[in-house]
Design a protein that fits this description.
With 375 residues, the protein is of the alpha/beta class. The chain is built from nine helices and twelve strands. The strands form three sheets. It has a seven-stranded parallel β-sheet with strand order 8-7-6-9-10-11-12, sandwiched between helices. Strands 1-2-5 form a three-stranded antiparallel β-sheet, covered by helices on one side. It starts with a strand and ends in a 7-residue tail after the last strand. Pfam families: adh_short_C2 (PF13561). Belongs to the short-chain dehydrogenases/reductases (SDR) family.
Length: 375
């Protein structure tokens, strides 16, 4: 991620190398928190004297790199310690405007992308990425159950999604049914109770998106074990408990279904310089859990895929950028597409993976990161 980019000016007297900016991050790849970047490090390398051979010059440049950089841009910084904010300090999100005009009379598309007649569940759906992905499901025709630890916020957003749908599609003959439900995703009894409540309200469940999750930045040897267990409980146990509960429901109905686990690019790479080994490992577990369950449940007609977002511009990260306007340019310099992701960037991918348009896609990990992880 923080690799050095070199530019050698052929025939000139000087070669330069610039390091990507180092980042003191307090933001997970799902946009859950924020990060502070330091200024880029510029390193200059003079050519060797004319008496030296090309091999000598190359050797000298390599030694200069090692001496000046010493791998510092590929290491974590143990001084970065950030806890995830409490619920009362999390900014509220808003449904996306202008995204709801869909359908054959506006923008023709394949009928297989429709979620018409489906009932979807989104965990962590009251804010951020979960809220916008849920809205995308509703726009695509689904009824929706928003699950969150904050039921009051979930109820407010359920109403907002329906109102937004009404404004965007005033001629719609039927309004979507969007409900709010409480669950501690890390507790099996709470999950089972929530699933039963959703089935009682909607009659069934067809799709699941597991968006509940959070990250924290701690040096591993100093990370409190109780917080480690909480992080894994939400990110990993929560995904497993909801997936298995809904899979049992689908198998009992002998019905097909589709699930999308929200992982992170952090499940495939090691973020630097912020130390977040527990989070990275948790998201790697989510990614491989999706692959494993996709094989186990394929015979039941249940597809399981993973979406791994990069750095996303949620309400929380926007607040950080408002307070630190110089950070945007530094952040986007790390991303080949030159911008951070927007929550709306996940509407299409999640709809595709839930719909029949991806009926032969299962066990996949779709990275939505602007090319971050391929550089």
């Amino acid at each position: 991620m923080m690799s050095l980019l070199s530019k050698v000016v052929r025939g000139g007297a000087r070669a330069t190398m610039a390091a990507r900016p180092s980042a003191a991050s307090v933001m997970g790849a799902d946009g859950a928190s924020a990060r502070v970047l330091r200024r880029p490090l510029a390193l200059g390398f003079h050519t060797a004297p004319a008496c030296c051979s090309p091999k000598d010059r190359n050797t000298q440049q390599a030694e200069d790199i090692a001496a000046a950089a010493g791998g510092s841009n590929a290491r974590t910084d143990e001084s970065i310690t950030v806890e995830y904010p409490t619920d009362d300090k999390l900014p509220s999100s808003q449904p996306v405007t202008g995204a709801g005009r869909a359908g054959v009379h506006v923008f023709p598309t394949l009928a297989t992308f429709s979620l018409q007649g489906k009932v979807g569940v989104v965990t962590g759906g009251a804010r951020g990425l979960g809220l916008v992905m849920g809205q995308g499901m509703v726009i695509s025709g689904a009824d929706l159950a928003i699950v969150d630890l904050n039921k009051e916020e979930a109820a407010k957003q359920a109403k907002s999604i329906v109102e937004r749908f009404r404004k965007d599609q005033p001629e719609a003959k039927k309004l979507p049914k969007v409900t709010a439900h409480y669950a501690d995703v890390s507790d099996q009894a709470s999950v089972d109770s929530c699933i039963a409540e959703i089935i009682a309200e909607h009659g069934r469940i067809d799709n699941l998106v597991t968006s509940a999750g959070f990250t924290e930045n701690f040096e591993a040897i100093k990370y409190p074990i109780d917080r480690m267990r909480k992080l894994w409980g939400v990110n990993v146990d929560g995904t497993y408990l909801f997936a298995t509960a809904i899979a049992r429901h689908l198998m009992e109905r002998k019905s097909k279904g589709s699930m999308v686990f929200i992982g992170s690019m952090s499940g495939s790479i090691v973020n630097v310089p912020q130390p977040q080994a527990p989070y990275n490992a948790a998201k790697a577990a989510v990614r491989h859990l999706a692959a494993s369950l996709s094989v186990e449940w394929a015979k039941a007609g249940i597809r399981v895929n993973c979406i791994s977002p990069g750095y996303m511009l949620t309400a929380l990260t926007q607040k950080i950028l408002d307070d630190n306007p110089d950070l945007r340019e530094q952040w986007t310099s790390l991303i080949p597409q030159g911008r951070m992701g927007s929550p709306e960037d996940l509407m299409g991918p999640v709809t595709f993976l839930l719909s029949d348009a991806s009926s032969y896609v299962t066990g996949a990990d779709l990275r939505v990161d602007g090319g971050y992880t391929v550089t």
